[in-house]
Amino acid sequence: MGASESKKAIKPELSQKQIEYLKMRTRMTEEEIQKWFHGFYKDCPDGLLTQKQFIHMYKQAFPEGDVTQYAKRVFVTFDKDNSGKIDFNEFLLAMDLMEKGNLEEKLRYAFELYDVDKNGILTRIEIETIIRMVLSLRGEANNDRLKDDIMKHLNGFIAKFDENNDMKISQDEFCRICSQDDYLREFLSPNFSS
Ligand SMILES: [Ca+2]
Ligand SMILES: [Ca+2]
């Protein structure tokens, strides 16, 4: 029969329909889509990226740090349909944002990444969690001086936007804060290119 054999031998290919869809949803050319597609299938032959693989990728990019928590957050944010796996469409939308997104888009995405309970507001606890997570990612979990420095920066900016000082930041405020402060932006913006 050989049915399963021939199934295995099929080289994955994008359908024209999927290409059109991805061209519409991203700023990628067909050539770029194909390139990402082949890279993606090399790592994920079944077309799905698992959380375990994803964490592994992060470990390679940040060998010094403890990436697990951060990578898990990124994974959940990319996994738009909450299937527990990242398919190629989800992957490409993420790459489009990272490679071609403007600052505003990236900051909006960063906000989603950090707004763990998805209520549209970053609280002080969430912010402290973020800072700890990013420090761990960089292998500086115990760098209290850096943490204090960032909190000081952030507090200074919050004071401008947050009149009653309860330190609840909306998405708009977050974008405004980060776009006005290079130091915070660099710290808080997720960066995949390294
Ligand atoms: Ca998914
Ligand atoms: Ca929240």
UniProtKB/TrEMBL annotation:
PANTHER family: CALCIUM BINDING PROTEINS, NEUROCALCIN HOMOLOG. Belongs to the recoverin family. Keywords: Calcium, Lipoprotein, Metal-binding, Myristate, Repeat. The keyword Metal-binding applies. InterPro entries: EF-hand-dom_pair, EF_Hand_1_Ca_BS, EF_hand_dom, Recoverin. SUPFAM superfamilies: EF-hand. Pfam families: EF-hand_1, EF-hand_7. Residues 66-101, 102-137, 149-184 form the EF-hand domain. One of its GO terms (molecular function) is calcium ion binding. The keyword Lipoprotein applies. SMART domains: EFh. It comes from Adineta steineri. It comes from the Eukaryota. This is EF-hand domain-containing protein.
